[in-house]
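We emphasize that the prediction below concerns an isolated chain of 162 residues; any contacts that depend on oligomerization or on bound cofactors are therefore not represented. The input was used exactly as deposited, without trimming of termini.
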Amino acid sequence: MNFVKTTSCILAIMLASLFSCTDTKKVDDSKSIKTVNGLKSVKDKVVGEFGADKLVYSTTIMAKDHMNDEFMYAGISFLENGIDMTQDLTMLPEEKTNPAKSKTLQNTIILKNKQGAVALKDLNFEEIASKVKQAEAMIPVDYEDFHLYRWVYSVDNDNKIT
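Result of the prediction step, given as a token string:
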């Protein structure tokens, strides 16, 4: 009979500890790429690292992984003296801005579709939060842990941002 009591106690303790666990994947609001506060912080970081007036034709922000929306990466693509360039900022495991480098493929046909550009300061990062809310509204109710993993701004030759 002691075996049954002991086993029951152990199972009860394990069950209680399981239900008392907090969400370890909860991200600080100031680091989230899907909240207004987090996106303001991300924009400040990106603009601070690359420059407010940096003209880009593409900007990407990414989260830590598909199960966590903590800001981990930002990358920009731009033309410099007719050369297609890229530069990125990584936040994990440590904050690091890598130097700009030219892309491997430099082809006039490809480059002709990369002539539009906007300044980083003109990208509306805060709109991402409302777009995420719209996307979450389309997801079935039984799926509750939606995390934004990646967001890409692209600028066409007419400087239209998508």
